[in-house]
Write a structure and sequence with these properties.
GO terms for molecular function: ATP binding; ATP-dependent activity, acting on DNA; helicase activity; hydrolase activity; zinc ion binding. By secondary structure, the chain is of the alpha/beta class. It is built from 20 helices and 15 strands.
């Protein structure tokens, strides 16, 4: 979706006005008539629209894009169709066209099978046939036979045009003349308080991980282990992220919450439950019946009473959260910690992060860098101090807004919650407003296609499992149209899981290049996890 505006702008830049007709096929009001679509020279659409207009069960029902025989179909970011059984992959393959192109910087992301989906879309004979591909390439490769990989290279050689930044023409001149990009790793050191917090979290996570190892169930509990690692990685950005309200998601749907409360064993009156839910719906914070103050980190009991979590634990005659059960201070029913529901709220943190704001080490390092850039801009009057701050967690972007606002560093933000028009508006504002220095961007939203050459600085706040995702995000800046030297800084917290992730990224790079078999990947995954918890 982000790329629709980008492609439109590029076409308008490189084609003479009026030379071609262009139609963006997107949104509820898009044309359903194939005759109308066929009148445009170029039609831009998204994979989501493509999948929504496709029906594998009834091909006759496929209208819109499927009612036109195209001269050429181009898949941008073609690795999106890599999952062979996905609706998007099947939808793309079903399009009717004379010519078919795939554009991708990462044709293999995790496994060799990723290539098969592209060959199926391209209708390369006989390799679009899964039986042949599986027998002659997939199985031999999985069994460690290098001939499977060699055959893939032979298939790709006549059909693939590969262009990198170092590619040259016949005379040996670079096909792309870009200013240099300097990548630097900034190693941050945790404060004593942060270190204590991280180590407590690490030891608690390691105990759980060691139990899985002892039981021989590491891969069976892969999702649980990733959750443990997620918390450790978030802790490196800011301890507040570990205190984010992950458990509110289950009952963010208030209808679901109402049903849950109505099932309460002690059965509070329906009228009372309705009143509680209505307060939540209005976003009213409410008053704690124990401290008589505004609710802080509110919990709902099975008997539908709302109070501060800390007040409830204190009423159980101890401030320790290790207490597992006690009486409801209002109706004296016995309740356990497990039965408590974190009250849904618009605030995604358990504490008021604005009034309790504390800079983490990583945030402090970032702010120093941003202030240096702002100072250099003021001295030189140059517009080149524009910066993109990437993080994979939108909750961290929420936190970063606090110190940026307090230090009067003007910023805009782009993440997955924005619609197409909002995204275009943010990118335009960032590009054209000289006062806006920072674009806060989620790694997923900024990882593909969009042109952000208005910036010449990038800060990558947290390492991603797959190095190709990081690379794609950073290449939004260092690409055609960039006229300034580019500075890329990656933040890593020393002595933590982040430092060990760097070694894992190097191993993943080997896997993407096809140097590991599936069995080695399986073994490597367990070894990687053990290394992370060492």
């Amino acid at each position: 979706m982000t790329l629709l505006g980008q492609w439109k702008a590029e076409i308008e830049t490189h084609v003479k006005p009026g030379a071609v007709t262009l139609y963006t096929h997107y949104g509820q009001s898009r044309a359903k008539d194939g005759t109308f679509l066929a009148q445009s020279d170029i039609v831009l659409t998204t994979y989501g629209v493509l999948a929504s207009e496709f029906s594998a069960e009834d091909a006759a029902e496929n209208g819109g894009l499927y009612s036109v025989h195209w001269f050429r179909v181009v898949l941008d970011e073609a690795h999106v169709i890599k999952s062979t059984k996905s609706q998007i992959s099947l939808a793309a393959s079903a399009l009717s066209a004379d010519r078919r192109w795939c554009l991708s910087g990462t044709p293999i992301q995790n496994k060799l099978e990723d290539i098969y989906s592209l060959l199926r879309f391209l209708r390369i004979e006989p390799w679009k046939n899964w039986g042949l591909w599986n027998k002659l390439i997939q199985k031999p490769y999985e069994e460690g036979d290098e001939r499977g990989l060699q055959l893939v290279q032979s298939i790709l050689k006549p059909i693939m045009l590969r262009r990198t930044k170092s590619s040259t023409d016949k005379e040996g001149r670079p096909i792309l003349d870009l200013p240099p990009a300097n990548t630097e790793v900034i190693y941050c050191v945790l404060s004593e308080a942060e270190k204590d917090f991280y180590e407590a979290l690490f030891h608690r996570s390691k105990v759980k991980f060691d139990q899985f190892v002892e039981q021989g169930k590491v891969l069976h509990n892969y999702a649980s282990i990733l959750e443990l690692l997620l918390r450790l990685r978030q802790c490196c950005d800011h301890p507040f992220l570990v205190l984010s309200r992950g458990d509110t998601q289950e009952y963010s749907d208030l209808n679901k919450l109402t049903k849950r409360l109505l099932k309460g064993e002690e059965g509070a009156s329906k009228a009372y439950i309705k009143e509680v839910v209505e307060d939540l719906e209005k976003g009213e914070r409410g008053e704690c019946p124990i401290c008589l103050e505004a609710l802080e980190d509110a919990v709902l009991t099975p008997c539908s009473h709302r109070m501060c979590r800390e007040c409830l634990f204190s009423s159980w005659r101890t401030g320790s959260s290790s207490v597992s059960a006690g009486l409801c201070p209002i109706c004296r029913n016995t309740i356990s910690k497990q039965e408590l529901i974190t009250a849904p709220t618009s605030n995604r943190f358990r504490i008021d992060v604005e009034s309790n704001w504390v800079e983490s080490s990583k945030v402090s390092f970032l702010l120093k860098e941003l202030e240096l850039l702002r100072d250099s801009k003021l001295q030189s009057g140059d517009n080149g101090a524009k910066t993109i701050v990437f993080s994979q967690w939108t909750a961290f972007l929420d936190l970063l807004e606090i110190p940026l606002s307090r230090r009067n560093i003007a910023y805009v933000r782009l993440d997955g919650t924005l619609n197409q028009n909002q995204r275009e508006r943010v990118i335009k504002e960032f590009r054209e407003d000289r006062n806006i220095l920072v674009l806060l961007m989620s790694l997923k939203a900024g990882g593909v296609g969009i042109n952000l050459t208005a910036a010449s600085n990038a800060f990558l706040m947290d390492p991603w499992w797959n190095p190709a995702v990081e690379e794609q995000a950073l290449m939004r800046i260092h690409r055609i149209g960039q006229t300034k030297s580019v500075s890329i800084k990656r933040f890593i917290v020393k002595g933590t899981v982040e430092e060990r992730m760097e070694a894992i990224q190097a191993r993943k790079q080997r896997m993407i290049c096809g140097a590991l078999t599936d069995q080695e990947v399986r073994t490597a995954r367990i070894q990687e996890l053990k290394m992370l918890f060492s």
